[in-house]
Here is the input.
Amino acid sequence: MHIDLKKEIKESGPGRTGLIILLLMIAVALLAPVIAPYNPYQQSTASLLPPSWNHWLGTNHVGQDIWSRLVFGARTSLLVGFGVGILSTLLGTIFGVSAALLGGLYEKVVMRIVDAFIVIPMIIIVILISAYIRPSILTLILLLSLLSWQGGARIVRAQALSLKERGHVAAARSFGAHHFYIAWRHIVPDLGPILLVDFIYSVRRAVFMEAGLAFLGITDPTVVSWGMMMRDALSFSYLDVWQWWLVPTGVALSLIIIGLTFVGHAAEPVIEPRLRGAEVA
Amino acid sequence: MFSKRNLVAYTIAFLFILVLNFALPRMMPGDPLMAIYGDEALIAMTPELKAQLVERFALDKPLWQQFGAYFLTLFQGKLGYSYYYNAPVLSVILGRLPWTLLLVGTSLVFSTMLGIILGIESGWRRGSRTDRAMLAGLMSLNGFPDFFLGMLLLIAFGVTLGIFPLAGALTPYSGLSGLALVLDILRHLFLPVAALTLAHLANGYLLTRNTMITVLKEPYMLTAKAKGLSQRVLKYRHAGRNSMLPVVTQTGIWMGRVVTGALFVELVFAYPGVGYLTYEALLARDYPIIQGVFLLVAISVLVANFLIDLSYPKLDPRVSYAY
Here is the structure.
């Protein structure tokens, strides 16, 4: 793995753009209470107001300030995205590395389970479960993580299998290092770039899923979410409100996903080195 | 022909779905019959019916016998009864399925074909200004969720311009027939298909472009060029055909997701397919329908994967030696 990931992302135009978009979004989410002029939950009688100095993007059907909801919505989106990204990459690493190192029946069982889960579309399982229990943010993060680590595990295992044959690992083993030590000191550090790519795609999937599920109306209704805002806005599509209610929300959501796509694409040569030089050729 | 590894994976996937379908309603607090049938059933429930259902699901027996009973009824093709629609689940779903197949099938053909062509052209000119513009443009398009694209199209062409109808799959009670009916269906189909095609265009494009770039580096491309073949033949027959394999896999995977893939777009356009049915069932807490859809998705996914495995050797004869 002699590809410098930082260089790879920085040198690609879209990669840089993506990174800037993401950093901006994270800043908005972190500074939400400072940026938002109103409490996003506070209702007033001034409903469906057009944009003005007091309400930059007007108000929604229950008189909440749309701009403030948009800003706080970034928190939900990124929280679910990064939460799922971290958890599912962690699970993928644990199962991928352990399968590669331990081998035997354990590896077979883990990899068949991975194959099975990759086959089933995640969304329908989430919908089925949500039909019975309305998931809170935390449940949603756990649920999505449990259903999305499998792809990463497959890539991690393939990489770990080749790493494990390297000289330094054999040397460590001959000194009596046990599996856990080898995994932690010699395999995981070399997996870095691959894990990052896996992480980015997990985040993207989760951001998309959260918005979609909120759009269906099966997430926690008390939390501001872009998907839910778009769902509300759609029911007023016969009015002009879509211009400042639906479009900014949809664009914000799309921007996060585009940012992640750009960064992910720039980092992809890590998984498929043959793609290197595709931009400059 | 059919690898053992895949067979094991499909079996696990199918069993997992069955167990989830079986376990979820029975783990809910309260009367399991309520969780199996949903709130609507309460109205129709008489003591005789209740006794009959307890008997059918073996609810007074140990858990493993309940699973046996569940499996047996499924095997007989009984997906249950929807009290909300007052009809058997299977006939409700089958009634909606043609609309989803029409919608997803059409958009799948368009997005795959366009994606492959754009991918070949873009990969062929890799690094050029056209390639970079196409790449950035299509990757941005990929970031737009399909329901957002759908809503934008709906507002632009449906609400503002009024060219296309806002909802449904045909004009209700219009009494149209023949050519007029076909045109009416096509008019309703246009916007949802456009939304789905745009949303999935980038997938086929990116895959084709990526493979194209690796294929162009192969020695046989140099040979073909040296033979003096025309650019069109080089581009499409030599490089293009070899770049199609991953797209075929992906299209196959999409075929399996036929039911879920159009879920959001069907919702935006109130298109009466299986996705919209799922949404209605979610709102009405009509559990038998949700369970039925879930099972249908599972089966279609497995069938699609099976078909991909079968079609592989046709596209790449080397694959058939591998088994």
